[in-house]
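Review session, final week

We close the course with one last complete record, chosen because it touches almost every idea we covered. It is Ferredoxin-like protein FixX, a protein from Aquamicrobium ahrensii with 233 residues. Go through it on your own first, then we will talk.
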Amino acid sequence: MSGHLCGEGWRLKIADALAAHGLVPRGGFNFTSDDRPPPGMAETPARAVLLVGQAGAAPWPHFMRWRRERPQVRENPLDIWSREIIAGVAERFGARAVCPNDRPFLPFQQWAMRAEGLKPSPLGILMHPEYGLWHAYRGALLFDHEIPVEAFQKVIHLCDACAGKPCMKACPVETYSGQGFDHPACLSHVRGSTGGSCRTQGCLDRNACPYGAAYRYPAEVQAFHMAAFASPW
């Protein structure tokens, strides 16, 4: 299903290092001569990438424990935590850590589609055949050497089989439509007097999706992400 690393011992060591923080490897691939990869550890173009992310809300207790120890970190705490953890794992395995909010932005979504064979849902979030919309990519490890990977098996894009598209109908201000995501309308609603349920329970459209329900983020996790979305920072 994913572009999993071969070489069982090495793969398991990386997976174990990430699992200690609720994170998981999310597939990888070797760059080709057609790519323009970012620099690796040697400051020359990287040869391979391994994505790091989460399935469901597994990192939440680890992040919350870190947050209690860092009360002074108020802006983008999840990004800071992710960077610290992934950088530590990268150092152990001779890789360079990169994250989705790095500047200049790196093509994380394109990397993810290439590594795991996923496609975007109508909401723009990549639809996973097991996790549904309840997963995320927190960073990646860039290697100066090629890594052994297996080609993923072709995955079923669940959105293709979903006739009703409930994810397009739950939002009271119709944030998602055939015209794309209306960011100003969504932000205004979430910040306004009628957006209370979105602030406390999460995006209504995302929650309307029937897939991956076992991995659905708890309300407190969704409220955290909505607060970050609505923040003026």
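Two points worth writing down before the exam:
The CA atoms of residues 76 and 228 lie 8 Å apart.
Residues 77-92 form the longest helix (16 residues).
Good luck, everyone.
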